[in-house]
Amino acid sequence: MSFLLRLAVVPLLLAILPGKAHAQYTTTSDGNGGLIITKWTGSGTAVVIPSTIAGLTVTGIGTNAFADSYSLTSVTIPNSITSIGQGAFDFCNSLPSVVIPNSVTSIGQGAFESCTSLTNVTIPNSVTSIAQQAFYDCTSLTSLTIPNSVTSIGQGAFEYCTSLPSVTIGSGVTTIGSSAFYGCTSLTSAVFQGNAPTMGVTVFASAANGFTVHYSIGATGFTSPYWLDSSGDTYPSAVIAKPNITSANTASGTYGTVFGGYAIVASGPPISFNATGLSATGLSINISTGLISGTPTKAGTFNVGLSATNSAGTGTATLTLTINKAALSVAVNSGGQSTYGNAPINPSIVVTNGTLYNGDSLANIGLSDDFSLTSASSANTYTINVTGGASVANYTVTTQSATFTINRAIQTITFPALTVLPYPSSPITLNETASSGLALSFSLVSGPATLSGTNNGTVNLTGTGTVVIQASQAGNANYLPAINVNQSLRVSAPVAFIGNTTATPENDGIANLLKYTFDIDPSSPMSATDYTALPTLGMTTTGGTEYLTLTYRQYALATGITVNVQTSPDLRTWTTQSSTVFSQVSTDPNTGDPIMEAEVPFSGTTEFMRLNVTSP
């Protein structure tokens, strides 16, 4: 006996949730080679009941198998189940819905009693009986159709389903137990698809005001306007007529905003509803309640065909549905600016009020701006506008323009130092430029000269001295005025020899020819400044090679002289260095003469170095 008992009671650990959650089932034999689940002790919120356990088919959910599972929010019942036992799910008060598979034939006493969160239940055509108090106190139940396969509804089966507005009772029902729908305080209609069944007492007692029993033309056992049922209770009654849709023929919503809802209202007890022409709007209809809802995906005016159907026929109407455009404010970003000659950056457009819906973007709804500025656009302040707003399909667009400023560019003057000129000299032409390419204007600041010609660009010398000339560029629409630049021009009379080239009129040891070469006045004693013009010896290294250098000032107007470098190991024998490199290293700030540097490679035999000046 104990051996048989161990075979009949099979504990099994079974995965019921994604991951590693488990629930424990206890089963017993159904007497036909299958199993009935007698207890679930899991703690999860969702359960998928297996169709087989240990290779045996699960055919039933036994008494109180899931009772008091307060946290259970989802249950999946397999097609192998044929019966749901007494109190199987009672007090599962977090369970919102349940689908009973079409393999189930009977729903036991109190099977779903006090499932207070249960809003809808699907009863298949395979069920033949609903036991007493099967759905007792399911206070959230709002939708119920009893299929034609059901023959009996037990006592108090749907008692105190206080949210249930209507019930459709299939043509196969022959008996309804006492108080089956007692205390269903929201119940306004019971639609019978077949003949009048045998009724218990107070089946529809305490229903809503205006509760009516509806029955089909030709059905037996009913009378109207009142029906005295087999128990002696009387209810208002009416023959089911083809529905007449009485709800408003217009409704409106806004693109992208949740539709407030429109419910088809029809006389009689409609069994189902439908609406055609909604697909373009993005809305949908609940065919059981007639509620049209959703979020509109297209603006416009739509003609929606409405229908309400019962056993007497179909009533139709047309709903004019207006989906208004969503309000959208779009502006050009303000504060954009650039400088003439530089490529300006489009400031772009942005949403300042409202929302883009359904994956829309400003570009794909056709909005842009009229920004067309380039680096060649003139300096100015431009108005940038939002474009395309008038043709946007789903939005009413309000636009805001903005200004974009191209500032005048900075320009600079290139005015190199002027050379030394003798007096008299021919007029000289100034060819200096501005970075903008605009022509310069010249003015005489001081000195012995006059200016003439285009923009005063010709200098006419009138004597010796220092001429200061100012270059300016006043700017234009695209360029700011340039900073003025002054340059000096030294004008001097040629140095005159006193005596021959080797004479030293001042007896200072500096011959006429050397003074001429170094731009020193031979008629005046040597000054400290004059001595700085004489050659100075130095050494430098370039590219790893050492060089001896002589640095000196050379008269810019000197003619008819030859300058070379000679080296000697002993001051007796001098060798002219043909490899001497002469270069200008600066300009004397006082005379404008070039400062020259002579370089010769240094060797072990080079002890002395001199500058040799000759004149024909």
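That was protein one. Protein two is written in the same sequence-then-structure order:
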Amino acid sequence: MQTEAEAMKKIHCVGVLVVDLLSGPIKQYPVPRVATQINTESIRIMPGGGAANTPSALARMGLGVSVFSKVGDDFTGDFVRRELGKLGVETSGICVSPRDSTPFTFVGIHCDGERTFIHTPGANVTFGLSDLDLDRVLAADYLLYQDAWVLAALDGEPGASDGDAEAGGRGSGASGIGDLKHIRAERARGIRRSVENTIA
């Protein structure tokens, strides 16, 4: 059980929010002009992405956590913010875009348990530093930077060296925990410069 001091720590998470729709079991996908429809037995819709999964787990543990991400001004964006809010996750740092759709993934669950995905990246394509209040993001005891490799406007090109990923300096005193191996040093450096300790 966490101490009162631990419960008061500020945890901020920057990353991807996605609405996942899971359906199955799927024996085979439809084939145009041959078998255009299939039926499944179940369907489930839930928030996904690193900026949903980790904060949800932390909130269930009684820890205070805030999310900084981007969704569309649509019913799926409303859904993911509402569901996170129910768990006690602070969602006011989520940028709502009138031009982009909320990221969405159809998850096909096959009879053997394997999963396949049809993904619409939506707001992930345009999510960048201009969508973040960096002063607010960095005012944290712990900064989690997740899903970095899918945020091209924030990270630059994927596949940066570990040396690039470790190029962030020391600043605000926040401890950074993130998927940083693919982040270019010249992009998103406004976030990484604040990180006291980076665990890639």
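The longest strand covers residues 18-26. Keep this in mind for the problem set.
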